[in-house]
Design brief:
With 333 residues, this protein is α/β, with parallel strands linked by helices. It has 13 helices and ten strands. Helix content is 41%, strand content 21%. Helix 2 runs parallel beside helix 3, helix 7 runs parallel beside helix 9 and helix 9 packs across helix 11. The radius of gyration is 21 Å and the shape is globular.
């Protein structure tokens, strides 16, 4: 059975800093502070039909362990009873690297928390400082080690294209994240939102965001890098919301961002394999997993069209035994 999250957003509550890029209402579309009753309602809504997933209750918002302690425990208590009765498999939450301690982890352990995601965003201290994160790369390292020591599943979140960053610094961040051996990663290209510090820097011309094409090229590379190190990328790009669509200033957001990155990844894999086999054009059979056909074909058949322009006539063959992110390329006689 597939994994699913029953998401409860705790927007901006407890966060001691206003990061340069942050406008959580625009990003999540949520500004209401949930109550224990809201946890019950979320679980009941998710389970109202046939159970399709192994569910975790997920407290998202970025600073769960920095909120008022009694309020945090009230939400955990509301969720924990569903862990105890087997309705859900565990509790997942996201928080800041500098809001983790042994005391906090003892509390989380006692209430059935199974996975903790840290908003690392960058592993370069100068980038963290310029974007007013309020923590250092060392905080990410220390918190990650503690989380793994206590037996939690570790997730790390990174952002690309932040103010003061670069392609090289973003790749360095990914490599340092890999060195921490997280179980999962989320990658969020920076989206510039009005009424934020970053928005004002953008409007003044001081901050120039990555283009959509630049973000896709970089994140396709990072996706491959994490996969090569057996780290699952569980999210690529921000969720769509009407508020995000209304408030973003830059034009580098796409609601199907992961699909674009996967299309780019498969396109590059084909070219690498064709080069290795000295296949320069003509009729070519490409074998992929059935679940990867659309990834190889590309949005609106973009990969097929672009490869045709390079002289390749592609025939797709499906093989259920092939891993999802593998292809085979054979020159047809």
């Amino acid at each position: 059975m597939k994994h699913g999250n029953i998401s409860v957003f705790v927007p901006h509550n407890g966060c001691p800093h206003q990061c340069s890029f942050c406008s959580q209402k625009s990003i999540t579309g949520v500004h209401y502070q949930p109550t224990p009753d809201d946890v019950d309602n979320a679980v009941n809504a998710a389970l109202s039909g046939r159970k399709l997933y192994d569910y975790e209750i997920a407290f998202f918002g970025g600073s769960f362990t920095a909120i008022d302690r009694d309020y945090m425990i009230s939400l955990l208590k509301a969720a924990y009873k569903y862990v105890q009765n087997g309705t859900v498999t565990g509790i997942r939450l996201s928080t800041r690297p500098d809001a983790i301690s042994r005391e906090i982890l003892e509390i989380l352990k006692s209430y059935g928390v199974t996975a903790i995601e840290l908003g690392a965003q960058s592993m370069c201290d100068d980038v963290l400082e310029k974007n007013m994160r309020g923590h250092t790369a060392a905080d990410v390292v220390n918190a990650s080690r503690l989380i793994k020591e206590y037996g939690f599943s570790l997730g790390l979140q990174m952002m690309t294209g932040l103010y003061g960053s670069s392609r090289e610094k973003d790749i360095c961040t990914a490599e340092r994240i890999i060195s921490l051996s997280p179980d999962t990663v989320r990658i969020y290209p920076t989206v510039t939102i009005r009424n934020t510090v970053l928005g004002r820097l953008f409007e003044s011309g001081e901050y120039v965001p990555d283009t959509l094409a630049e973000s896709v090229e970089l994140c396709a590379f990072l996706l491959k890098l994490f996969m090569q190190n057996n780290i699952e990328v569980i999210r690529l790009g921000l969720h769509y919301s009407e508020e995000l669509d209304r408030d973003m200033l830059s034009d580098n957001y796409h609601p199907a961002f992961r699909e674009l990155c996967e299309n780019k990844l498969f396109y590059d894999m084909f070219l690498e394999e064709a080069k290795r086999k000295n296949i320069t054009g003509g009729d070519v059979a490409v074998t992929v997993s059935p679940c990867a056909v659309s990834k190889f074909v590309g949005q609106k058949r973009s990969n097929i069209i672009n490869l045709s322009k390079l002289g390749y006539n592609i025939k797709i063959v499906q093989d259920v035994s092939l891993p999802a992110y593998r292809i085979k390329v054979i020159q047809c006689c």
